[in-house]
Design a protein that fits this description.
31% strand, alpha+beta, D-galactarate dehydratase, Barwin-like endoglucanases, single chain, 153 residues
Length: 153
């Protein structure tokens, strides 16, 4: 198991070079303050090192939604690129980038995220950022059914 984890960390680190330096990002909730996404430090090997979100950002992401929302569907979630910072989900349930919320069926926890479209050919499941999975209380190696909500029409 340790060897697999080490191999995973090495593969995850390989993608770090493609992550740009700190960049501002629009929040998942309209009207929320702009966040700065910080890439993980070189040599990051643990979930804590890859999760560069601040306590304030985590609190904002787990707050109740302020806008009406609608269930877009249920999907199986797995860990996305751990070197891509912030709260996001790449899902085939949306056709454009938009604010949304994920709810874990097992824990009942929810997190506000940026929903990003995923081509159907790329897979049927949803890739979720490391900070979002942690906020949901989902083990990083788990495949978990989640509900995806987006802005109400």
């Amino acid at each position: 198991m340790a060897r697999t984890g080490g191999m995973w960390a090495a593969l995850a680190l390989a993608g770090c070079a493609a992550v740009p330096a700190e960049r501002p990002v629009s929040p998942a909730e309209p009207g929320a303050p702009l966040s700065v996404l910080r890439p993980p430090p070189p040599g990051a090997r643990t979930a804590e090192a890859f999760d560069t979100t601040t306590p304030a950002e985590r609190a904002a992401a787990t707050a109740a939604p302020r806008a009406p929302e609608a269930l877009l569907g249920r999907t199986v979630a797995s860990l996305g690129d751990p070197a891509d910072p912030g709260f996001w989900a790449v899902t085939p349930l949306v056709a454009r980038v938009q604010p949304g919320r994920l709810v874990d069926s097992a824990t009942g926890f929810s997190v506000l995220v940026e929903l990003r479209p995923r081509e159907a050919e790329a897979g049927a499941g949803t890739l979720v950022s490391l900070p979002a999975l942690r906020a949901l209380g989902v083990p990083l190696t788990a495949l978990r059914e989640i509900s995806v909500f987006g802005a109400a029409p």
